[in-house]
Design a protein that fits this description.
The complex is a heterodimer of chains A (264) and B (328). With 264 residues, chain A is an all-alpha fold. Chain A is built from 11 helices and no strands. Chain B has 2 domains: 1-43, no CATH class; 99-321, MetI-like (MetI-like fold, Orthogonal Bundle). Chain B is 69% helix and 0% strand. In chain B, α8 (157-168) packs across α10 and α15 runs antiparallel to α16 (295-321). Chain A: This is ABC transporter permease.
Chain lengths: 264, 328
């Protein structure tokens, strides 16, 4: 077979790809490196190296509390978003229901509305139903944010599902509820786990919704934001590095799961 | 009615005393509570529809449409939150304020300039990368090449923004490097300018462009390119006549996604921008964190931003896409 794409563009594009990758990774690498700097200000060159900042962060009660709080909010909003998203996806693929296009458009609405506007509209919404700002409001906001992604992921999987599986279950005497829990849900399984991890990352990363809906208890991004505004210190770098390593590991695992689900 | 439901619908002639399900779910399904509630409900068509559509429709209307509707309602009120003794009336004044004062007009224009520029730069930078991964990397290496690009994506908005500071600060990597090799004597002030904001925005959002472009380019059959080459088309002609038109869908959804994300970015301008780069989200935020009776103005401004952003994205989709398409 002849090589249709000649070598010059190929080499240029390869170089461009690696340059782009360097551009993506360089700032994060610098940020991580700075967390080992043995001085209480942020500046290059790094000079002496130390692990003291990590010791300080791990002993920082505020940081640990923010971690717990973020994880708690992420777990609650992920659970809610997965349930609702799957339910909405079931409605969209159901036979004999009209207006599926409209339902799908409504389901995707929060993903199209820019983050800032979504945050403000939710802030107004909770005040009209007399809900105070705080944990419940943040969970609600993160759930609204995550639902469209679950719907899209669940729909993709549902559309590849052979219809006769559920029919067979019904013939064997299962009612629709039982057929859903025994057949459809296990089939959705891998896609949903990938979707859930994505929701967790969305929630842990979210700043703008938490900023408008939150109370005085800081989540991780709020804490980092407040510290950055208060002045630079390698302590923030250590904090951000820890968060980055954990979220990247979780993200990688999600990627592995969705890939495995796709090849099955 | 209720008592007969314990056996109805599970197949005629079955002995009701034999458990229908033998594992896990059996206890639930055979319990009286289930059979009198959910079990009874799914027996009828109406019951099934309510069970399937009830919660999703309530959620979609209450929480996907509700907040936008409430924002619209409040933007037309003279006072909110309601205070005792002050009567709130219907008014268009909150919208008029926007057009009266350039103080508010300028940030919106700036938001649009930054979002448009960032979208254009992102498209130009990411397109070759997407093309490389989709067409030049061998199929078995593709997911690895893609995965490497996705690593920074898991860092989150705030951490990525923060990491840009390491690069651009006065004693950041770029300035220190330039001074070391003797190109400059004193640091170039890059942080807290429109440059750092633009750089940060592109850094933040470039991956939203990658995936739509990648999936569009990957779908183009390689035979088309081979055929064009056989017919004597050079690399540039092949790109202009085949790849570009066939990846239009990816360009449209990537650009819309990036543009709409850029418009709504809140933390990045506050951390990377300076006094001359106040964007519209920060302006709007002021109405909610200052004196609380300015909420209606903030709501009106947010709606102005939402409508102009969606119209811009819509016009772009029409112009480039030629047909209506959602961002997904």
């Amino acid at each position: 077979m002849r090589n249709m794409i000649s070598d010059a563009p190929r080499t240029t594009l390869t170089a461009f790809y690696w340059a782009f990758l360097l551009y993506l990774l360089l700032p994060l690498t610098l940020m991580m490196a700075m967390s080992f700097k043995d001085a209480n200000f942020v500046a290059f060159p790094i000079g002496d190296w130390t692990l003291d900042w990590y010791a300080k962060v791990m002993a920082d009660k505020q940081f640990l509390e923010a971690c717990l709080y973020s994880v708690m909010i992420a777990a609650a909003s992920t659970l809610a978003a997965t349930t609702l998203g799957t339910w909405i996806a079931m409605l969209i693929v159901a036979e004999g229901i009209k207006g599926q296009v409209i339902i799908f458009a409504l389901a995707c609405l929060p993903a199209v509305v820019p983050g800032m506007i979504s945050a403000i509209s939710l802030r107004i919404f909770i005040s009209t139903i007399d809900m105070p700002t705080g944990t419940a409001a943040i969970i609600l906001g993160h759930t609204v944010h995550a639902v469209p992604f679950v719907v899209v992921m669940a729909l993709t999987r549902l559309r590849s599902m052979p219809g006769n599986l559920v029919d067979a279950a019904r013939d064997l005497g299962a009612d629709s509820v039982v057929a859903f829990f025994r057949i459809t849900l296990p089939y959705l399984g891998p896609a949903l786990v990938g979707g859930m991890i994505f929701c967790v990352l969305l929630s842990i990363d979210d700043f703008v919704r938490t900023f408008f809906l939150g109370g005085y208890r800081p989540t991780l991004p709020m804490l980092i934001f407040a510290k950055v505004q208060g002045g630079m210190s390698p302590e923030i770098n250590a904090m951000a590095t820890l968060v980055l390593v954990v979220t990247a590991a979780v993200g990688l695992y999600a990627e592995y799961l969705t890939r495995r689900a796709r090849t099955r | 009615m209720v008592s007969s439901n314990t056996t109805a619908g599970y197949g005629a002639g079955r002995d009701a005393s034999v458990p229908r399900y033998s594992t896990g779910i059996a206890k639930v399904v055979n319990s009286a509570l289930y059979q009198h509630t959910l079990g009874a409900a799914v027996e009828s068509r109406i019951g099934r529809i309510i069970l399937l559509a009830g919660v999703p429709l309530i959620w979609l209307i209450m929480l996907h449409v509700g907040p936008i509707y409430q924002m619209l309602k409040i933007s037309l009120l003279s006072h909110y939150p309601v205070q005792p003794g002050v009567e709130s009336r219907f008014t268009f004044d909150n919208y008029a304020i926007f057009f009266r004062e350039s103080l508010y007009f300028t940030p919106l224009i700036k938001s649009f300039i930054f979002a448009t520029a960032a979208t254009a730069v992102t498209l130009v930078v990411v397109y070759p990368v997407a093309y490389y991964v989709a067409k030049i990397v061998k199929p078995e290496g593709r997911s690895k090449a893609l995965l490497l690009l996705l690593v920074p994506f898991w860092a989150g908005e705030l951490i990525r923004t923060f990491s840009v500071i390491m690069l651009l600060a006065n004693r950041g990597a770029v300035n220190v490097l330039l001074r070391e090799i003797g190109l400059i004597d004193r640091p170039i002030p890059m942080l807290y300018t429109s440059f750092s904001l633009g750089f940060g925005l592109v850094y933040l959002i470039c991956l939203y462009m990658l995936l739509p472009l990648y999936s569009a380019i990957e779908k183009i059959p390689s035979q088309y390119l081979d055929a064009a080459a056989d017919l004597g088309a050079g690399p540039f002609t092949r790109f202009r006549r085949i790849i570009l038109p066939l990846s239009k869908d990816g360009i449209v959804s990537g650009c819309s996604l990036v543009f709409l994300t850029c418009i709504g970015v809140f933390a990045t301008p506050m951390l990377l921008g300076g006094p001359t780069t106040v964007l519209f989200p920060e302006t709007i935020s002021g109405f909610f964190h200052g004196a609380s009776d300015k909420w209606p103005v903030g709501a009106a401004f947010a709606l102005i931003m939402l409508v102009t952003a969606l119209i811009t994205a819509g016009i772009f989709m029409r112009l480039v896409g030629g047909k209506k398409r959602s961002a997904f």
